[in-house]
Amino acid sequence: MASEASAPRHIRLTSHHGGFGALPIVWGAATPAERGPIVGTTTRRSHRNVIGTHSGSYSVYRALAVAAGALKREHKADLTNTAPTDIIGPYPQWTDAAKIVSLDPWGAQVAEVFATELQAGYDIRPTIAITKAHVILPEVIEALQKGRLTPDRKILMDGGAACVTKAAIEPVWWLPGVARRFGCSESDLRRVLFEETGGMYPELVTRSDLEVFLPPIGGQTVYIFGDPRDLANPEVELTARVHDECNGSDVFGSDICTCRPYLTHAIEECIQGAQRGGVGLVSYSRKEGRALGEVTKFLVYNARKRQVGGDTADQYFARTECVAGVQDMRFQELMPDVLHWLGVRKIHRLVSMSNMKYDAITQSGIEVGERVDIPAGLIPADAQVEMQAKKAAGYFTPGGAPDQEELKQTKGRSL
Ligand SMILES: [Zn+2]
User: Fold this and answer.
1) What is the pLDDT of residues 181-224, one digit of tens each?
2) How far apart are the CA of 380 and the centre of ligand 1, in A?
3) How far away, in angstroms, is 259 Cα from ligand 1 center?
4) Cβ contacts of residue 207 below 8 Å, gap of 6+?
5) Which of 14, 25, 320, 396 has its C-alpha lying 20 to 30 A from 273's C-alpha?
């Protein structure tokens, strides 16, 4: 069997019809039976009803494991005891094709809602997994020691561990809906996705009958403080942050931006909110460096620090644009989907200053009450460049935005 991966085999292109036995997908249908399961298996190709495969960017590692002979390509997941610890939904947003276009709302419950299809031999994988955890952060322990947080042994334990429900979500794109969000035609979207990935998925342009794409990108994780069912109740106070990945700050504590301090501040706010009888939510998206990637991000850091006059706030966006061609590639248009999956209709306290996130959330029909900015004492000195530039560009700031002269004066460290 070791020769399985290396034995010469015909390559079966799936760029033509012939999906005998493939189940139809009717996005936004009223019931999971009518919607149909997402089948991205690579073992029974005739069953596939999507473009791409499961696990987002990790599908490439799966291919490596098969190539190396470490994984049998026909391996079928044994899902015993993997069911969600908490049931999310179904909510009315799940059956509104315009509300959710970038994840499968039924993705956590496939074993239950597609039991018949699984029995019939379809390899249907969960695209969402829900579990429970204790999270221990030094900033939360410090808040306990300084008396800003108090343990209640339900949400927050004596030693500083916070009890959470967390969900990991893989991207599942319904292409007609994604195109509508970005204001382009579906055929243009398909063509550009095909071309800009170096021709990675020919079905994007040859199989217009396949409307669902499992893109090779990072997904997202949500952390819930309190009862997940309360997220859908607009009467229960919801404290929420939607955070985009920044490995340099989030994990390694780099002081050029406010990402980790803002994230840990949001967690503190979420814990306090949950202890007041509310619920807290942090949604974390894998969109490293404004979705430009870390290589581009570090190139921009150098360009900022080496420019004539040094790293000043008035040149902050210009330097990113010089290297990347755009200021930001995160495009928050798809971000609210996860909130609609959780049934959110109102965020009482949004722990974010981003106007782009605020606009995307409110334009998707979710009401936002108070906006919570980062406390001044948590902004590292070198991160003032970014903070002032963003405030001038439209970020929420109760203190007013800086003028051009102030931006010139706000200067970061040299290399
Ligand atoms: Zn950052």
Assistant:
1) 999 999 999 999 999 999 999 999 999 999 999 999 999 999 99
2) 11
3) 4
4) 14, 15, 16, 17, 51
5) 396
